Structure prediction request, 305 residues.
Amino acid sequence: MENKDTYAIGQAGVKWGSAEKTQWLALQNVKRSYADDVLSQLDALGNQFDIKEYANLDYVSGSFPLFVLRNLNWDPSKPNVLVTGGVHGYETSGVHGALRFAATASQDFQDRFNLLIVPCVSPWAYETINRWNPNAVDPNRSFCINSPAPESAALINLVSGLEFLMHIDLHETTDTDNSEFRPALGARDAVEHKEWAIPDGFYAVGDTLKPCHEFQKAIIESVEKVTHIAPADESGRLIGETLQQKGVINYATKALGLCAGLTNAQFVSTTEVYPDSPKVDAENCIQAQVAAVTGALDYVSTLLS
Prediction:
């Protein structure tokens, strides 16, 4: 279905310039606190993780320290695993799912893996409930050389020189993708974006070049113990992409500059939770993210034994 509404900023058919981006930024406001919701949880994790500030984002609206959690018994002989959340700051359960995993289930895996957990890649977007950063740049299309997003560049720098066996990136697909973020994208880039049917339920996104069928299946089987899996639409697709198996589609992660393409990990997945479903609440969405991480790690663990 086409989105025929005209976005409030800019002129149809004309890409945004600095004036339009400034106008967009002026409309954004703080809706929640990164310090209260995220940073406040880090102290309690200090007995399990080495917690370091890996960068600081300086924006006109303020400074945002970025933190990484690294398990205390880091062992170069163990495989490295990367867990990221909040690349899109508005996708709440990605942030809190990463934090919940760190606080609970991570203890079951620290003897087998080196865990690197970045719970909130985009704190300004977390506070303003946004997909973009203040410069109207999408961090999850900016994991590339000379990244235009400081959030993405900081994470690229953090993992530089490290090899990872697995990377799972925690996301959501929300109703606001159609009502706000895709219309804004169309206006910014002067292109037409059709609305897509928002999948009701959890799904996973694999890497087109290394889809890892059994790995994705293990994630789905773990998650469906706590919440429902999104069915395909009438054309057998999810958000316009062909269904590869139950609850799984694939994207070209590196070509698109996605966070899931950040490393050369053998096992890669992006989770997608649907928080607007009448079948779930915020707690269930967090549980789904944790189940995705643990399902992924359980599967990779079997290959190491």
